[in-house]
Amino acid sequence: MRTPAPADLDRIAARCAAHPKVSGFSAAIEQPATGFTWRYGDSGRPYFIASITKLYTVALIMQLRAARAFTLDTRAADILGADTMRGLNVHDGHDYGPAITVRELLTQTSGIPDYYEQKRPDGTTFAAAMIHADAAWSFEDLLELARRMPSRFAPSAPGRAQYCDTNYQLLGRIIEIATAGDFGTALRERVLEPLGLHSTWLFGPRTLDRYDEVATLRAGHTPLRIPQAIASFPPDGAVVSTVTDQIRFLRGFLAGELFPAPYLDEMTAQWNSVFSPLIPIHYGIGIMRYRQPRWQTPFLSPPTMIGHSGAFGTVLYYVPDRDLFLAASVNQMRAVSLPHILLLRLAARFA
Q1: Cα 47 to Cα 329: distance, rounded to the nearest angstrom
Q2: How far is CA 49 from CA 32, 65, 269, in A?
Q3: What is the pLDDT along the chain (351 residues), one digit of tens a residue?
Q4: What burial letters (b/e) apply to 114-135, b meaning 16+ CB within 10 Å?
Q5: What distance in Å separates the CA atoms of residue 2 and residue 221, rounded to the nearest whole number?
Q6: pLDDT for 295
Q7: For 87, how many CA atoms within 13 A lie in the half-sphere containing its CB?
Q8: Dist. CA 253–CA 250, nearest whole Å
Q9: What is the pLDDT of residue 1?
Q10: Can you tell me the distance from the alpha carbon of 268 to that of 69, in angstroms, rounded to the nearest whole number?
């Protein structure tokens, strides 16, 4: 395998870090096959990893599946109760909520509306409103927001999927019921401590005073102070970590340290498009695939990457054909393509 000179990677990272919208930039690469490691920026500074949190939730779900607490085809209503699921997917006059399965939540095929980015009846979105006014939201509040939005398709409708944070709010509650405890405790005892992730923690109502320990998050050029909102997203967007811990987590996730390794074959066997056709991100069972079409990057050789990204400009991916782990954060809500461009340029140096 080819490994580039660290100075080449430094030059690529420096161009990204100099972008006027980038805040508190950090990046890391590890290639286990060669022992190559590289860091750039303040790699020890924690940042909000946003939706990469979902991988931690998936690890917990797969652990509980292995323990036979439920199967992927268990109805969520059998765990959470029919009342919790009622009205979350009403399509063509039929309420599919009580029939939705754990698998459909994981694969983003439930058809449940996304409380975070989907337009509300007044045309606004939660994500846009959050930037202007910080507020705390309960699990029930977020489900009610979803119930007020139209469902775009019935569960497991052929060829249909929608990226949906509501699905992972529900998975977080399933974890709490199955472990008879809170999500933070399950995360710490089942993922963070076993992997030795000492710089990773869950941001929540009890840790609001730690907001300033985390890299500054921006929307454009405006610094954001939204601790209550982020604390409302435990299973879908509230983990804090560093690039070094992120790579350690993904290596453990893919190596079978957190749940049976054979599950990964099933989790990556089928992919669904969850955004517009122009966004090259697909979803398997709880994991993203990022594969840039060659026509969009004519001067690069874009590899397939698996892992996850987040709305705060965060990325965590593995490149199987180059045995390459990459993590980065630009801490920016309005330039989330920047870290993906960075990853493509960095990965190209290993081709």
Answers
A1: 8
A2: 23, 25, 26
A3: 789 999 999 999 999 999 999 999 999 999 999 999 999 999 999 999 999 999 999 999 999 999 999 999 999 999 999 999 999 999 999 999 999 999 999 999 999 999 999 999 999 999 999 999 999 999 999 999 999 999 999 999 999 999 999 999 999 999 999 999 999 999 999 999 999 999 999 999 999 999 999 999 999 999 999 999 999 999 999 999 999 999 999 999 999 999 999 999 999 999 999 998 778 999 999 999 999 866 556 556 689 999 999 999 999 999 999 999 999 999 999 987 899 999 999 999 998
A4: bbbebebeeeeebbeebeeeee
A5: 38
A6: 56
A7: 10
A8: 5
A9: 74
A10: 22
CB 73 within 8 A of CB 103: yes
Indicate the pTM of the whole model: 0.96
CA distance 239 to 230: 9
Q: Which of 345, 330, 350 is nearest to 297 (CA)?
A: 345
In degrees, rounded to 5, the angle at the alpha carbon of residue 330 between the alpha carbons of residues 127 and 23 is: 95
DSSP string, 256-319: TSSS-TTHHHHHTS--EE-S-TTS-EEE-SS-EEEE--GGG-TTS-PPEEEEEEETTTEEEEEE
Say what angle helices 53-66 and 165-179 make with each other, to 10 degrees: 40
Planar angle of CA 267, 271, 273, nearest 5 degrees: 140
How far does the chain reach from its first CA to its final CA, in angstroms?
8
CB 284 within 8 A of CB 163: no
> Which of 217, 257, 263, 265 minimizes the C-alpha distance to 240?
217
Which of 170, 54, 194, 256 minimizes the C-alpha distance to 178? Answer: 170
Q: Are 234 and 223 in contact (CB under 8 A)?
A: no
Query: Under DSSP, is residue 239 helix (H, G, I), strand (E, B) or coil?
Result: strand
CA–CA distance, 13 with 240 (Å, rounded to integer): 22
Q: Can you tell me the distance from the alpha carbon of 211 to that of 199, in angstroms, rounded to the nearest whole number?
A: 14
CA distance 106 to 103: 5
